[in-house]
Structure formats: structure tokens, C-alpha cells
Design a protein that fits this description.
The complex is a heterodimer of chains A (209) and B (220).
Chain A: E1 2-11, E2 14-24, E3 28-33, H1 40-48, E4 55-60, E5 63-64, H2 69-74, E6 76-79, H3 91-101, H4 130-138, E7 148-152, H5 160-175, E8 179-183, E9 194-197, H6 203-208
Parallel strand pairs in A: 3-8, 3-9, 6-7, 7-8
Antiparallel strand pairs in A: 1-2, 1-4, 4-5
Chain B: H1 2-16, H2 18-39, H3 43-66, H4 71-76, H5 78-84, H6 89-119, H7 125-154, H8 159-184, H9 190-218
Helix pairs in contact in B: 1-6, 2-3, 2-6, 3-6, 3-7, 3-8, 6-7, 6-9, 7-8, 7-9, 8-9
Classes of the chains: A alpha/beta (209), B mainly alpha (220).
Chain lengths: 209, 220
């Protein structure tokens, strides 16, 4: 179970988001919505531990994530809006590089090619389309078995087939008792079990943003 | 083991970007090639200035090479994955730096022979010059990594990096050229090389931790 308690994030004088409290039980998919600039992406980065929260805390099974950062990082996958792809490498090399960054991961539980990348393995990433790049990024989710998936606009650039594949991956993850948090405007192909709307900002912060 | 694996991919990434490295080597060659025209074709003068010229060219080349050390990773999102890796961040950082050091040294040592012919470097000076590069270039890259990580963390223009870096490069430049001058004049180069080695010995174990701290802090 992942729980956020009165989480507030400030960067400099600007409040990115304020007083976010939410609980995501095991086996849940939470869709996070909010207007542009409401701090959805920053919230995900906060949960990933990439961005420090100004006040409040984030707990995994009642234990603060700040207590053991390495363990927290081992159990999560973060798919940001940047693809983290190197155009010079082939798909196979890129996957191997990601694996080298997470050597403690168990072998991928899914041997079947859930994102449909098998025929692209030896293609340099510079030749992939935007949708194919997105699929490759998403395929990181199936590396090892992380219990927490943080997805920032995961279905961007995906075609219907890609979205269905993402839904299948999410379904599998939830069935395993995993937790997924997805920031998205578009409806996901898989119905979320929970929804969370980012708190509205007051007038003053809108001016700053 | 994981480190070698990562290093392997970093090096592969660099070899796939060979055009950029060739451009850097060409930059080095152009500096070496043009300086005799600028200074005048006097063999004795050139021979005396040669180690300094080679080092200056190497230093400028390293400044050009360094801005891609973390800037690219920050732009394409790889930096997030590095920060989220369960591996110790200083280790991940070190593999990136080691790859750049290997590429820089390979390029420079390869260019040393043409430089020797163009500038008339003697056979006595050449090994000392090579040794000074082997000890000095890693120190340049480690220093560059620190400043590079800070510019990425502050989200500032990499041009700032150059400005901040130059003062720290000066001692390395002084000791490296002093070693070559000493041996050219028949004195011992060892004290200067030892000082270069000392700079490297301080930077090697500390810089990766400083860089890791800067990168982590920069996310906040």
C-alpha cells in the first residue's frame, strides 16, 4: 500500500502542488487528473523520490520511503514524458542498458512480447516512430517485477493496439497485487479502480505559474 | 561486474557517436596544424612550445567534449533512470566518466604521433608528454564532470561550465607542461608528474561522490 500524507511541493517561491493525500491499496490503478500545471508530473516525481517534498510524507506499507531510498527505487518503475532513449543504440542494446542499470531485478516474468517489439529488436532507435519509442519505453515496466508503476501520460503517441497492450500489462500488474499510478487526460484502455483529482490552485499561484 | 556492463554500453554509445569524436580530433589537429603558421616556421621555437601547444589543444578539446557528459542525459530522461537505479549513484557516474576518459585518451594518444611530426617534438619529450596526458586528462574530465553536474543541476547553459572550469584547469596545465619542459632541459620530470598524479589521486575517489550529490540535489 502506498499512502501520501498532506504532501506539498514547493520549488523556490512557487508552490507546485499542495496538500495531496491519497492512498493506493495493493492491486489498484489510480488515475490522477488535473488541469495543466496542477503539478501532476511533479507529484509522480515526488513519489519516485526524484523530487523532494517540502512537507508531508510518502509511506510504503507504513514505512517512510525516505528511510530506505535504494529499496524504494528497486520496487518502482517510473515512465516520465521523456523517453530516456538513445537514438544511436538498437532496441536490444537499449533494453540491455536498462537491465545493466537495475542488475538486482529478477528476470522478466513476461517472456511473451507484450508491447510487440520483437520485430524491432535490431533496429536503431533513431528509425523508430514516436509510438514505437513509447512502446519501448513502456517495455521497461516489465523488467523485473516492480510493485509500483508510476506512469506520466503513458498512452501518448500510442495507437489503439498499443493502448490495448498497455491495458493488458496494467491488468497483469494489478492482478499480481501491484500498484499503478497514471497521470493522464485521455481515458485509459483499462478502467481505473481509483481516481484522484489534483487540488485546485488558488488565484495567487496561478499567476506565478 | 555491473560496472563493466555499464561501461561497455557507455563505450558503445560513444563509438556510435564517432562523428562527434572525429570532429573533436579534427579540432585538435587544426589547432596543431595552424599554430606553426601563426607562430612562424622556426623549428627550435616550435619544439620548445610543442608540449604547451599539445596541452592547450587537449584542454580546449576536453572543454568541447564535456558539455555532453550529463547535459544529454538530462535532456533525454536517462538521468532520471540513473538516479532511480538501485546501484550506487557514484558508481554509475564513474562509469560514464571512465568511458569519456578512455575515449579522450585514445583520441589524444593517437594524435600524439602526427603532433610529434608537425611540431618536431623530440623522442625524449614524447614519453613524458604521453605520461602527462595519461595523468592529466582523467583529472580534466573528473573536474569537468563536477562542474557539468552542477550546471545540469542548476539548469543553466553549459557555456557557464567553461567559465567555471578554466581556473581549476590551470594547475594541471602548469604541472603537465613543466614536466615536459624539465625533461627537455635535461632535468627530472618526475616531481611534476608526481604532482599531476597527486591531483588525480585526490579527484579519483572524491569527484564521483561530489557529482552524484550535485545531480541528486539538482532534482530538487
Amino acid at each position: 500500500m502506498l499512502s501520501l500524507h498532506n504532501l506539498t511541493c514547493r520549488r523556490g517561491l512557487r508552490t507546485v502542488f499542495k496538500d495531496v493525500s491519497l492512498t493506493a491499496p495493493a492491486g489498484s490503478l489510480t488515475q490522477i487528473t488535473g488541469v495543466n500545471g496542477s503539478g501532476k508530473s511533479s507529484l509522480l516525481r515526488c513519489i519516485a523520490g526524484l523530487l523532494p517534498a517540502s512537507t508531508g510524507h510518502i509511506a510504503w506499507q507504513e514505512a517512510d520511503i525516505a528511510d530506505d531510498r535504494a529499496q524504494h527505487q528497486q520496487r518502482l518503475h517510473y515512465i516520465g514524458h521523456l523517453d530516456a532513449l538513445k537514438p544511436e543504440l538498437t532496441v536490444r542494446e537499449m533494453i540491455a542498458y536498462w537491465r545493466a542499470l537495475r542488475p538486482m531485478d529478477a528476470p522478466t516474468p513476461h517472456e511473451d512480447d507484450i508491447f510487440g517489439l520483437a520485430h524491432l529488436m535490431d533496429k536503431p532507435i533513431r528509425y523508430l516512430s514516436a509510438g514505437q519509442k513509447r512502446r519501448l519505453s513502456l517495455s521497461r515496466l516489465l523488467q523485473g517485477h516492480a510493485s509500483l508503476w508510476l506512469l506520466d501520460e503513458p498512452s501518448n503517441a500510442l495507437d489503439t493496439d498499443g493502448q490495448e497492450r498497455l491495458a493488458r500489462a496494467l491488468r497483469w500488474h494489478i492482478d499480481q497485487g501491484g500498484i499503478a499510478l497514471a497521470v493522464t487526460h485521455h481515458p485509459l484502455a483499462l478502467a481505473p479502480t481509483h481516481r484522484y483529482a489534483m487540488p485546485e490552485k488558488t488565484q495567487k499561484k496561478d499567476v506565478a505559474a | 561486474m555491473e560496472m563493466l556492463n555499464l561501461l561497455h554500453y557507455e563505450l558503445r554509445l560513444h563509438t556510435r557517436q564517432m562523428v562527434e569524436w572525429v570532429a573533436l580530433v579534427m579540432f585538435f589537429v587544426i589547432v596543431i596544424l595552424l599554430l606553426p603558421f601563426a607562430i612562424g616556421p622556426e623549428p627550435d621555437l616550435l619544439r620548445r612550445l610543442a608540449p604547451g601547444l599539445v596541452w592547450l589543444a587537449a584542454l580546449l578539446m576536453s572543454l568541447l567534449a564535456l558539455d555532453r557528459l550529463f547535459v544529454q542525459d538530462a535532456r533525454d530522461g536517462t538521468l532520471d533512470l540513473m538516479l532511480l537505479s538501485p546501484l550506487p549513484l557514484p558508481l554509475v557516474v564513474f562509469t560514464k566518466i571512465a568511458a569519456v576518459i578512455i575515449m579522450m585518451l585514445a583520441a589524444l594518444l593517437l594524435m600524439l604521433l602526427p603532433a610529434m611530426l608537425l611540431l618536431g617534438i623530440s623522442f625524449v619529450v614524447l614519453p613524458v608528454l604521453a605520461l602527462s596526458l595519461i595523468l592529466g586528462v582523467p583529472a580534466l574530465v573528473l573536474l569537468g564532470g563536477i562542474v557539468g553536474a552542477i550546471t545540469v543541476a542548476l539548469n543553466r547553459n553549459p557555456a557557464l561550465l567553461t567559465l567555471l572550469l578554466v581556473p581549476f584547469y590551470i594547475p594541471i596545465l602548469i604541472f603537465a607542461v613543466a614536466a615536459c619542459d624539465a625533461v627537455a632541459m635535461g632535468a627530472a620530470a618526475l616531481p611534476h608528474l608526481l604532482l599531476l598524479g597527486a591531483i588525480l589521486a585526490i579527484l579519483l575517489p572524491t569527484a564521483p561522490f561530489v557529482i552524484a550529490a550535485a545531480l541528486r540535489h539538482g532534482q530538487g
